Automatic annotation (TrEMBL):
Keywords: Carbohydrate metabolism, Isomerase. The keyword Isomerase applies. One of its GO terms (cellular component) is cytoplasm. One of its GO terms (biological process) is monosaccharide metabolic process. GO terms for molecular function: intramolecular oxidoreductase activity, interconverting aldoses and ketoses. This is Fucose isomerase. It comes from the Bacteria. The keyword DNA repair does not apply. PANTHER family: FUCOSE ISOMERASE, L-FUCOSE ISOMERASE C-TERMINAL DOMAIN-CONTAINING PROTEIN. InterPro entries: Fucose_isomerase_N/cen_sf.
């Protein structure tokens, strides 16, 4: 889990008693102590701010600190001139009110009223927080925000390789993210060069390490291991690779890319099949939020069991419900794909779309295997955290005319994904579950 950089600027109005009770240093120390638990560091903390000049100076310092989140702490009530320069910063901002130190007699802080004033003046997405650092509500809201911001960070600052373009005829996969993610393009000729550069010593070492069950003898997997080594060399400088893995790779090498992609996923690499860059970006956000590998899947069957999600066999072992094995590709009968059931449990999904739009979904995998490759049944689906029937989910996906890859991550993280979309200014599409009429 990557540590995020948080800044803290306490806001006070000297007329209020709460400005003289030493509340802000206590809160700062508690926030610093919480950092290791939630995966952040307090990278900037200002002295209490009481007027516009101080707020402008704190804003300059906060921006220079390269923060992922700035917490503007309402120690007491303050008018907008004391914090508007902070709200206008081009970084995510949270407004946080400390609780009152007593609840009768003279009003000590009026901090929550200051928070109310602050959110009413915000002109961009701004998260509110309330309570002491030790309060469960404060920590729950902050942890959710940190998860969301990990997704924001990779989508704004990440760097990926688009190797070979999209698969033939898959024109929807030609769209690129609009979040700031850097996409570098390369031809498949770079892969051929990397394949030629793989040494026999490297290849022998990779063969010797192999332990997975396989329908193929090791000799028939050598070219798959060679492809794995070449892809690893190309992928190393990037956060992920969108790969055009057919038809050229099997035509030229005699092997499918899926076993190589699966084994690289085991090692922590993120690869998207069929040159799906938007799918890759969605995988990276899911991985950043969940801390676990994310995969791309097709909707391949619909029945009373649910919606079968399937792909060609490139999922990592972390997704396996049980034993795995390498088997022939279902169509081309070439080595090799990883055959396995997808593990049971909650999942979350994201599909980034052109025009700064996104779909956020979720559900539960049953753990039952479907077709050869990596497969499982999606049950109890949700769409933007609202429950749907499997039929309504399928109708919504088709009615929105979405590309045919679902990016799926482990765990229930829809709330973090929805917050991530808010920080990025992405429109989250609602469900369109009309089952019978034409929707266009």
């Amino acid at each position: 889990m990557q540590n995020l950089r948080i800044g803290l600027v306490p806001i006070v109005r000297p007329l209020f008693r709460g400005s003289r009770l030493g509340l802000e240093p206590t809160a700062r120390q508690a926030l610093e102590a919480l950092g290791p638990k939630l995966g952040f560091e307090l990278a900037y903390a200002a002295e209490p701010v009481a007027d516009t000049a101080q707020a402008e100076a704190a804003a300059r310092a906060a921006q220079a600190a390269k923060l992922d989140l700035l917490l503007v702490q309402h120690v007491t009530f303050a008018t907008g001139d004391a914090f508007l320069p902070l709200l206008e910063l081009p970084i995510p901002v949270g407004l946080w009110a400390l609780p009152e130190v007593w609840d009768s007699g003279p009003l000590p802080q009026n901090a929550v009223c200051g928070l109310n004033l602050g959110v009413s003046l915000a002109q961009k997405p701004t998260k509110w927080f309330y309570g002491s650092v030790e309060d469960a509500w404060f920590q729950t809201r902050l942890e959710l925000t940190l998860q969301a911001l990990r997704g924001v960070k990779v989508l704004r600052e990440g760097r990926v390789l688009w190797l070979g373009g999209h698969a033939p005829g898959f024109f929807a996969f030609g769209a690129l993210p609009e979040t700031g993610l850097t996409v570098e393009k390369a031809e498949l000729s770079e892969l051929w060069e990397a394949l030629a550069a793989v040494s026999e010593a490297e290849l022998e070492a990779r063969v010797a390490e192999f332990r997975e069950l396989s329908e193929y003898p090791l000799e028939q997997l050598r070219e798959s291991f060679r492809l794995e080594l070449a892809l690893e060399q190309l992928a190393r400088p990037y956060d992920g690779v969108a790969l055009r893995e057919w038809p050229e790779i099997p035509d030229r090498t005699g092997v499918m890319a899926y076993a190589a992609m699966a084994r690289l996923a085991d090692a922590g690499y993120t690869l998207a099949p069929e040159g799906d860059v938007m799918g890759l970006a969605s995988q990276l956000a899911l991985k950043a939020i969940s801390g676990r590998p994310a995969i791309l899947l097709d909707i391949s069957h619909f029945s009373a069991k649910g919606i079968m999600l399937w792909h060609g066999g490139e999922a990592p072992l972390a997704w396996a419900a049980g034993p795995t094995r390498l088997v022939p590709h279902f169509n081309r009968h070439l080595p090799a794909v990883r055959d396995m059931a997808l593990r049971a449990g909650p999942i979350s999904g994201l599909r980034l779309l052109p025009g700064r739009k996104a779909v956020v979904h979720g559900g539960v995998l049953s753990g039952e295997k479907g077709y050869d490759g990596d497969s499982g049944y999606l049950t109890r689906p949700t769409w933007a955290a609202e429950p749907l029937t499997p039929r309504q989910f399928l109708a919504s996906w088709l009615n929105h005319r979405l590309p045919h890859h679902l990016a799926v991550g482990m765990g229930a993280h829809e709330e973090a994904l929805l917050e991530m979309c808010a920080w990025l200014g992405l429109e989250v599409l609602p469900a369109r579950p009309q089952e019978n009429r034409l929707v266009w």
